[in-house]
Amino acid sequence: MGYIKNLRIIGFKRFTDFYISLNENTNIFVGDNEAGKSTIIEAIDILVNKTYENFDKYILGELFNSNAVAKFKTNPSFENLPRIVISGEFELKNTDRYSKDYYGINWYGSDKITSKYGILFECQVENDMKVDVADIIRKKIIPFEYYTLKWDTFKNEPYNKLKKALSFVPIDASNNNSFNSVDFYSKRLFLKKHEEKMTIVKTDFRTFLDESFSNLKLELLEGSKKFGLNHKKLILENIVGILDDEILIENRGKGLEKMIKTDLSIESKSENDVIAIEEPENHLSHTNLRKMIHNIQTKCADKQLIITTHNSLIVSGLSLKNVIWISENTKKTLDNLEPDDSDYFMKLENDNLLRFILANKVILVEGATEQLIVPYLFEMENSSEKRALESEGIDVISCNGLSYKRYLKIADILNKKVAVMTDNDGSDDKISEIVTYNNSNTTSKIFTPSSIEEHTWEVSLKKENELLIDELVKIQPNAKYKINGIELEDKKLAFMLLNKVDVSMQLINSQKKISIPNYLKELFKWIKE
After folding, report:
1. In a domain, 239, yes or no
2. Domain count along the chain
3. Do 375 and 486 fall within a single domain?
4. What range does the domain containing 379 cover?
5. Quick one: angle between helices 491-498 and 500-510, nearest 10?
6. Partners of residue 118 on adjacent β-strands
7. In the chain, how long is the greatest CA-to-CA distance?
8. Which pLDDT tens digit goes with each residue over 2-52?
9. Which is it for the CA torsion 71, 75, 76, 77, positive or negative?
């Protein structure tokens, strides 16, 4: 199987100069909207499938990098004209069909010694046009009609799509101009089912059409002329569709269309080497999404797969080690994650995982109680500056107990600033372990009360807000509140521990001033820095 080893993208859409190496099998692109995930797929499509080859060149105005255009407008010169370069290195075997046509030293930034397999796309105004465009440039106008779009192999020969050494199929059910796999699927299945008698079927079809057309008894034209059928336009397999309960499958909805496109592409072993699926979660139910993930896992061993997604199930289901985080002309991977941690998230359907990867900064908390009240306390602490978590680019994410340690491993790889709010569980050893961790880490810190008497968040909160808690928390005089089978002397604390979420909501809804425990103040100060 051939696959794309790496790409260099220069001057194309949001990328000024971007380099990405790809996994041989599965690649999961994640990132904020407009981070460039789809742009990478489009760049591959341009490189391999020569999209825009026959388009009006004014389309380039939508493709050039905005910074390159701004640079030209500020200082109009031939040297500052925007240009696009896409260089893709392939992994091929010298025995692969047409592979020798792609092997050479004509790669971007070549040392003129090392040979590689691949294609180089360049979109620019050639030097011999410098005089011709001089007057246009002086007017700060980009001379689109003078641009040349050129595809060459690394052997420095023109790239011929009919001699592909590697095929690429982009799948996007929301885009009607994308690869029409539903029609292709219908055509292919029809030909396969009737392969042995196709000549007879086609002859009978044409005969039937001719007879049916004659039976219409249309008015004759002048002389010997009359209307007839153009059989060049009537190719049987091109008009065949598949009905499901008398409804064409493409009219069943985008979800089914995407399922068919994906299934067809991953099953076409000899035809599609590289497949890109944009946001497969769109139009699919949870059950069908899980089914698609299973199909991908079991059938894509011999293909290179590129997926863009905003869905945690896909990220964890196809392994965190395959994640590539795209952000501002850079990319980061999680391929150094330990298998045990990757397997943990793979088995855990965790909607918070992708939020964690995409967030700028994160406060990890242990449960729903802290997730509710921390944003409220942060805003209260910063009320004079009118700063909320959102304005600081901070997300509060709840994890389960000690699973925060697994999140911290991801944070370390991504160099992400993460603060952990956790209980010390009344353990001096845990406090000591946290101090040791904080002393050896700069991008992530763990915050907990320094005293074992404040073994949990509710104890710290109550200690700082005795009067407010007395006012808000109402208990029955003779009620017994047991924690782990033990009745606490402090009934209000016991009530708080048994009704964590409700008490947090009471505190928030009261809109009363809350005294924030010192360790949480320290957390807020550090995460803002």
Report:
1. yes
2. 3
3. yes
4. 359-528
5. 100
6. 89
7. 111
8. 899 999 999 999 999 999 999 998 898 988 778 889 999 999 999 999 988
9. negative
